[in-house]
Amino acid sequence: MTANEPEQTVASEPRYAYWWDFFGPHAERTAQHHAKHLREFLEDNGHASAEVGTASAGHNHCAAFCLPPPAAKTLVEATLRPNRTTLAGEVPR
User: Fold this and answer.
1) CA–CA distance from 78 to each of 5, 13, 40, 82, 89 (Å)?
2) What angle do CA 55, 53, 17 make, to 5 degrees?
3) Strands 16-23 and 61-67
4) What H or E segment, with its residue span, contains residue 34?
5) What is the pTM assigned to this prediction?
6) Separation of alpha carbons 75 and 72, rounded Å
7) How far apart are CA 68 and CA 15, in angstroms?
């Protein structure tokens, strides 16, 4: 590349957030426990940088989520079978 050529940028792959929903009086504790196992699974498979946590959409609901790198998309979808998938940054419904 010469100094006069524009720099080529590669479109980055979209990042997805994966969600596992839990309902009822023990939803928060169950989601926290599930998040612990999500973190362990991702670390064991070389994706320790993935964001993992929990979020609540209201009373008696809590969800565990992970935001893995694009390289882990197939692994998470095929192995862990999330309840929902959103684009990273989207507010889940």
Assistant:
1) 42, 18, 17, 9, 22
2) 85
3) antiparallel
4) helix 27-44
5) 0.82
6) 5
7) 8
How far apart (Å, rounded) are the C-alpha atoms in residues 56 and 78?
A: 25
**Tens-place pLDDT, residues 16-73:** 999 999 999 999 999 999 999 999 999 999 999 999 999 998 999 999 999 999 999 9
Q: Sign of the CA dihedral 30, 87, 84, 56?
A: positive
What's the rounded Cα separation, in Å, for the pair 25 and 9?
A: 48
Name the residue ranges covered by the structural domains of the chain.
Answer: 16-87
State both tokens at 61.
């609901």
Say which amino acid occupies 13.
E
